[in-house]
């Protein structure tokens, strides 16, 4: 439950997916990110609270109409959206109108979510590869065409089972792991003090002690506890219905989840090996974990991080020795 709840928060707010980074890259430098973060989180919580009334009022209505306990009426995932809710709407006065409104809402919600997620991919690749930025329209057309054909797998006769595997493994532990790494990188490697000064430079004041404590201690610890607790209580998808989900569906699911998680240590190892010049592992780590703007000696003489350029030369004196 905790893993699902955390995943839902990430889906609704967008951290860990790159969506917020992509959208924030279009902001002005002095945009009040503090106010935006508070307003977005508050609106999201209020929306979730109101949607709870909508969902459970319908479930209670279905329980009353069918004479069954509510725990027998409740379903999750696509079953709730495409089975339970339409059944409830069909018994209401003006059912056709409400059905049109409901499925239009699902359509627009899906389109809006795909726009945000795709923008993260488009912005990142456009910044990394200028040729994509110069041919943005062509790239967007190709990207959404690929998304469309991949999504057809969920529209086949066994699409419900494909969706169930994706729902369980595609963005559960993988997104938690990504956000955990982000929290460690920002709070402990980049440093909460540097982040505090960055925000002060942008909006004129720094976050208070509460926010700094949450970012540095509570957020990484809470996410780590959720991951460990979820793994301890993990039950394979095949255990819920062995006939519908054979053992190899769990293997495919974990391979799919691991494909995104493994990129973090893989890229870290690649960057570690990419550091030029003769340097020990500890020197390479200190160089890679030193922010580019910090013009300071990182490891002894001649090993320093200086204005976005790494210089490794044992004959070059350190700045404090010049």
Automatic annotation (TrEMBL):
GO CC list: axon; neuronal cell body membrane; presynaptic membrane
Keyword list, A-Z: Cell membrane, Disulfide bond, Glycoprotein, Membrane, Metal-binding, Neurotransmitter transport, Sodium, Symport, Transmembrane, Transmembrane helix, Transport
Membrane topology: Multi-pass membrane protein
GO biological process per UniProt: amino acid transport; dopamine uptake involved in synaptic transmission; norepinephrine transport
Binding site residues for Na(+) 2: 44
GO molecular function, one term: metal ion binding
TM region positions: 6-26, 38-62, 82-107, 138-163, 169-192, 213-232, 252-270
Location of this chain's protein in the cell: Cell membrane
Pfam families linked to this entry: SNF
Superkingdom: Eukaryota
Binding-site list for Na(+) 1: 12, 109, 112-113
Chief localisation class: membrane
Similarity-based family: Belongs to the sodium:neurotransmitter symporter (SNF) (TC 2.A.22) family.
Protein name in UniProt: Uncharacterized protein
């Amino acid at each position: 439950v905790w893993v699902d709840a955390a995943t839902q928060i990430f889906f609704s707010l967008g951290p860990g997916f790159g969506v917020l980074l992509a959208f924030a890259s279009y902001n002005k430098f002095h945009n009040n990110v503090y106010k935006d973060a508070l307003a977005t989180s508050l609106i999201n919580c209020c929306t979730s609270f109101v949607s709870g009334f909508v969902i459970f009022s319908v479930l209670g209505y279905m329980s009353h109409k069918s004479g069954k306990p509510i725990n027998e009426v409740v379903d999750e995932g696509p079953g709730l959206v495409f089975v339970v809710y339409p059944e409830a709407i069909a018994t209401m006065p003006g059912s056709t109108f409400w059905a049109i409104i409901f499925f239009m809402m699902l359509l627009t919600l899906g389109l809006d979510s795909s726009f945000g997620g795709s923008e993260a991919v488009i912005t990142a690749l456009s910044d990394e590869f200028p040729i994509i930025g110069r041919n943005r329209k062509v790239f967007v057309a190709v990207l959404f065409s690929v998304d469309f054909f991949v999504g057809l797998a969920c529209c086949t006769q066994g699409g419900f089972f494909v969706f169930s595997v994706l729902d369980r493994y595609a963005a559960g532990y993988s997104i938690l792991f990504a956000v955990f790494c982000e929290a460690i990188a920002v709070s402990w490697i980049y440093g909460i003090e540097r982040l505090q000064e960055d925000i002060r430079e942008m909006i004129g004041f720094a976050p208070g002690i509460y926010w700094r404590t949450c970012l540095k201690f509570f957020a990484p610890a809470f996410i780590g506890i959720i991951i460990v607790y979820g793994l301890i209580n993990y039950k394979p998808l095949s255990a819920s219905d062995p006939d519908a989900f054979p053992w190899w569906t769990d293997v495919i699911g974990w391979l799919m989840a691991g494909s995104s998680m493994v990129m973090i240590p893989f890229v870290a190892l690649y960057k570690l090996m990419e550091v030029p010049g003769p340097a020990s592992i500890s020197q390479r780590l200190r160089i890679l974990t030193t922010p580019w703007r910090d013009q300071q000696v990182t490891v002894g003489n001649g090993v320093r991080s200086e204005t976005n350029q790494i210089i490794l030369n044992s004959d070059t004196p350190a700045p404090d020795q010049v």
